[in-house]
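A protein record pairs a chain with a discrete description of its three-dimensional fold. The following entry can be read in just this way.
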Amino acid sequence: MKKPKLACADFTFPLLSHDEALDVIAMLGIKGVDIGIFAGRSHLQPKDIFPNVGASARKLSKKLQDRGLKFSDIFLIPSQDAFKQAPNSPSPGVRRGYRELFKRTLDFTVRCDAPHMTSLPGQHFESESRSDSLKRSSETLAWCVEQASKAGVVFSVEAHMWSVAPTPKLAAQLVEMTPGLTLTLDYGHYTTQGMPDSKIEPLVKHASHFHARAACKGLLQTTLKNNTIDYRRVVRALRRSGYPGYIGLEYVRMDNEIVPDVDNLSETVMLRDLITKAW
């Protein structure tokens, strides 16, 4: 039986240098790396990468190759303010800016020979109905899917709990409205809201990437001891669906009371072993 394709986020270890974070991932025997490009809070910053995309891609690719690692995903978050550069902003100028940033990130993804790119779906703007916000999100994301498809890259969005699609029903609706769009699925965003695995599981068929982390009601991140996501069930669902992508272990450090700090290294090792055994 094949082993699962495991990845680890470079932003799981923000207190280390980027080289050290990649060293740790390689030492854990994890082959895939989820690269974060988060404005203001990741090792790699848009302002550093995009002035010379080619040189930045060559430098990063060599770092991974030297460690026997592979790109599993490149994850773009344009701003720490989710509304400021949302793909579904009511402002045409903001949407144009998002498209330009998307194109640069896609170029970087292609030059890294990375197979997958993730971004966020946008926000619900309270000046309008959620259906209008969702429709505008679908319009921009359809353009993103088209650009990514032309470049040979699979594109997905993480429909997180603060986004325009905070529930499984709305996440599925967004995908169904947007041909070719896939999900970077993170059960935790729904578990935190008190939803059982059975309500989240139908989204597996829409997933092209997966974020794994311990969570429970009220906490988007916790220890495996307190975790309520049945990762054995998750693995069965992924295998049944013929899921082809990576499972990215994604512990984080965030200034948010529902995302408390845990021992990222130990929790990553324990979840790695649980998923590998279940697979």
